[in-house]
Write a structure and sequence with these properties.
- The complex is a heterodimer.
- Chain A is of the alpha+beta class.
- Chain A starts with 13 loop residues before the first strand and ends with a strand.
- Chain A has two domains: 14-242, Rossmann fold, CATH 3.40.50.300; 246-372, OB fold (Dihydrolipoamide Acetyltransferase, E2P).
- A six-stranded mixed sheet of chain A has the order 6-7-8-3-9-10, with helices on both faces. Chain A has a five-stranded antiparallel sheet with strand order 13-12-11-14-20. Chain A has a five-stranded antiparallel sheet with strand order 15-19-16-17-18, with no helix packed on it.
- In chain A, strand 16 (309-319) and strand 17 form a beta hairpin.
- Chain A has helices at residues 52-60, 102-107, 117-130, 146-158, 176-193, 204-210, 228-233, 238-243, 348-351, and strands at 14-23, 26-36, 41-45, 67-72, 75-76, 87-90, 164-168, 196-201, 213-218, 221-226, 248-258, 261-265, 272-275, 286-291, 296-299, 309-319, 323-330, 335-341, 358-363, 369-372.
- Chain B is mainly α.
- Chain B has a single domain (2-303), classed as Orthogonal Bundle (MetI-like fold).
- Helix content of chain B is 75%, strand content 1%.
- Chain B has helices at 2-40, 64-71, 73-106, 109-120, 127-138, 143-155, 171-196, 199-207, 212-223, 225-240, 244-249, 257-265, 271-303; strands at 44-45, 52-53.
- Chain B has a two-stranded antiparallel sheet with strand order 1-2.
- In chain B, strand 1 (44-45) and strand 2 (52-53) form a beta hairpin.
- The chains are: A alpha+beta, B mainly alpha.
- Chains A and B meet through strand 6 of A and helix 8 and helix 9 of B.
Chain lengths: 375, 304
């Protein structure tokens, strides 16, 4: 699913060193340091106003950092204007030139390259072939569908074979089917050309499927950098755990520490929950217990496991075809979300449970996570 | 039956009334009078009121006004001077107005409002008053004329030096006052056009390697052609038929078409001739416009 170019690993191909961008007293980007290696597909993920777009615009050269430096392939970008950077950008709105044909759009950046007209035409053809748009080369942007425009925008931003390609919410304007198709295509093209991609997105699914590494941003700072599975399975903070995917987050206190784990007492769960491994938690620590909905087993019959079993009633459920999402109300009144895969070909009511039915939830000790109350 | 009428009225009556009323106005106060003018242009002058007649001599319809239009140097000259003055004024308005409009779009939101206000501010004073003000400014004893004269004298050899530039009653004065008067008609449509342009297109062009002036040449300028055409028409059309400015500051020996029409209707009491000149003026304005629309539509089709 993710592609990283095997050729010449260059871990500090792009170096962002202590970059801050202030607008007045507001720090849109606050002391961010980050290395991106050559040929990587890197995602900046965060909500609106988290600073990801500002960081992208600083890489493109549309904004200058207030503090800190940016290096691309060893070259300091300070004072280098956007038109002289080995960087191209695919804009969120695509920003295709409405008065030019598809071919002219793609070839626009090549005017400044030291190439013959024949070489330019060949490059345009090659890029349009890459995004399967060669047959529409003489259309104007307003005669294209959203997906076609997006391909032209991609071809245009790739045409100069930049060292770094920036993509601003690249799949944002596409419908779901097209998104799924396109994200694999992106990975393919990226692998073929070996160009380093930096994607900005607020959509975690987009980030997870596209990128080999993700930086989660919040309020101008990077909260965690890691592979998609790192960030999903081992979030380093409540914020990241909450931002990526859905999660049940319950406040509690460490009651007992053992060699292979800790027992957590959460007043709203009623039962103690055993979490493995112990890490550095100590008795009496205030913690947040977190577990993802799909990591909870739901059953009508009481499971054999002796620990981490909670009893509740089905409050509500949503049927999504391949799985269902249940909202289970515990005796304490606390509501938990639980995912169940619909393995049997029956209605969700028959297969798993239905409204008002008593069910048992069990959480594997390894599936639960603990966060300090302050993280 | 009554309710059927009411239904019809509710369904489309109001819409039709609203669309039709301005057109009815135009028919009554533009089309009908203009047809009268066209008809009049085929008549001959007569000592009666109104001073034209078709009867009693055969043929009742005459083309001698149009013959005179194409043979008399007075009308040809007036037409040529009108086209020349209007074209120069339009080009100057574009050269002054384009940077103005662009600068306004690039200004901050509140400054933008103020600058637009300033563009239309001259309309708050009577047009006639402003032309008279120019008469004062262009006179040989005004500070404006003196400043221009001394600036001129700095750059020319001593033998060419002037005590004062003759500005009043010249074509230069006509063009100058027309540029001044019509500048807002150029700036406003250009502003409306430039303001709509997506600035991310400029960023995209810059991202692809274009410097500022290349971005202007490749993106902003071609996308603002509709605004240039709109502004150009709004300046060129009234400038062609301008009467007041050439009458007040122009040279009577170089009349523009508007003045010729006024003279024929007024002093000469030659209504058929005046009508023929008016028809010629309209054709000079409408035919190029129709040709432009025709080719524009063709170009649009070709792109599709």
């Amino acid at each position: 699913m993710t592609a990283s170019n095997p050729a010449t690993p260059q871990p500090d191909f792009i170096r962002i060193e202590g970059v801050t961008k202030s607008f007045g007293t507001f720090k849109a980007v606050n002391n961010v340091s980050l290395n991106i290696s050559k040929g990587e597909l890197f995602a900046l993920l965060g909500g609106s106003g988290c600073g990801k777009t500002t960081l992208l615009r600083m890489l493109a050269g549309f904004e200058a950092p207030t503090e800190g430096r940016i290096f691309i392939d060893g070259q300091d970008m300070a004072g280098v204007p956007a038109y002289d950077r080995p960087v191209n950008m695919m804009f969120q709105s695509y920003a295709l030139f409405p008065h030019m044909t598809v071919a002219k759009n793609v070839g626009y950046g090549l005017k400044h390259e030291n190439m013959t007209q024949g070489q330019r035409d060949d490059r345009v053809k090659e890029m349009l072939g890459l995004v399967q748009m060669a047959h529409l080369a003489y259309r104007r942007p307003h005669q294209l569908s959203g997906g076609q425009r997006q391909r032209v925008a991609l071809a245009r931003s790739l045409a100069k074979l930049p060292k770094l390609l920036l993509l601003d919410e690249p799949l944002g304007a596409l419908d779901k089917k097209l998104r799924e198709h396109t994200q694999f295509e992106f990975a393919n093209i990226q692998y073929k050309l070996g160009i380093t991609f930096v994607v900005v997105t607020h959509d975690q699914e987009e980030a997870m499927t596209l990128a080999s590494r993700i930086a989660v941003m919040d309020q101008g700072v990077i909260r965690q950098i890691g592979s998609p599975s790192d960030i999903y399975e081992h979030p380093n903070s409540r914020f990241v755990a909450d931002f990526i995917g859905s999660i049940n987050m319950v406040d509690g206190e460490v009651a007992r520490v053992e060699a292979n784990g800790v027992e957590v007492l959460c007043p709203t769960l009623g039962e103690p929950v055993f979490v493995a491994p112990a890490n550095s938690h100590r008795q009496g620590d205030k913690v947040s217990l977190a577990f993802r909905p799909e990591k909870v087993a739901i059953s009508r019959r009481k499971p054999a496991a002796a620990i981490n079993v909670l009893k509740g009633k089905v409050l509500d459920f949503g049927y999504f075809g391949k799985d269902s999402l249940f909202r289970i109300k515990l005796a304490t009144g606390r509501v938990l979300s639980v995912n169940a895969v619909n393995t049997a070909r029956m209605s969700a009511e028959q297969a798993v449970a239905t409204w008002e039915e008593d069910v048992y939830l069990s959480i594997a000790p390894e599936a639960a996570m603990l966060f300090g109350a302050d993280s | 039956m009554r309710s059927a009428t009411r239904d019809w009225f509710n369904r489309r009556g109001w819409r039709d009334v609203i669309i039709a009323s301005p057109y009815l106005w135009l028919v009554a106060f533009f089309l009908v009078p203009f047809i009268i003018v066209i008809v009049m242009s085929f008549a001959k002058t007569a000592t009666q009121s109104p001073p034209f007649a078709f009867l009693p001599d055969w043929p009742f319809i005459r083309f001698e006004t149009y013959q005179r239009l194409f043979t008399s140097s007075l009308y040809i000259r007036a037409g040529a001077i009108s086209v020349y003055n209007a074209a120069v004024a339009t080009v100057l308005c574009l050269l002054i107005g384009y940077p103005m409009a662009l600068a306004i779009t690039r200004a901050g939101k509140s400054l933008q409002r103020l600058l637009l206000m300033l563009v239309i501010l001259p309309f708050w004073t009577s047009f006639l008053l402003r032309v008279y003000a120019w008469i004062g400014l262009m006179g040989k004893n005004s500070w404006f004329n003196k400043a221009l004269t001394s600036a001129y004298n700095v750059f020319v050899p001593t033998s060419w030096e002037l005590p004062g530039i003759q500005m009043m009653n010249t074509n230069f004065a006509v063009v100058l006052v027309m540029v001044y008067s019509y500048l807002p008609f150029m700036v406003l449509p250009l502003y409306a056009n430039l303001e709509k342009l997506d600035t991310t297109l400029n960023e995209a062009a810059m991202d692809l390697g274009s410097r500022r002036w290349e971005v202007f040449r490749d993106i902003t300028l071609p996308l603002s052609i509709p605004g240039i055409i709109a502004g150009g028409l709004l300046v060129f059309i009234p400038a062609m038929g301008e009467l007041i400015i050439p009458s007040l500051v122009g040279n009577a020996g170089d009349p523009m078409i508007g003045r010729v029409i006024q003279q024929e209707f007024g002093q000469n009491r030659d209504w058929p001739m005046a009508s023929a000149v008016a028809v010629a003026l309209l054709l000079m304005l409408v035919v190029p416009l129709m040709l432009y629309n025709h080719f524009e539509a063709k170009a649009q089709k070709g792109a599709a």
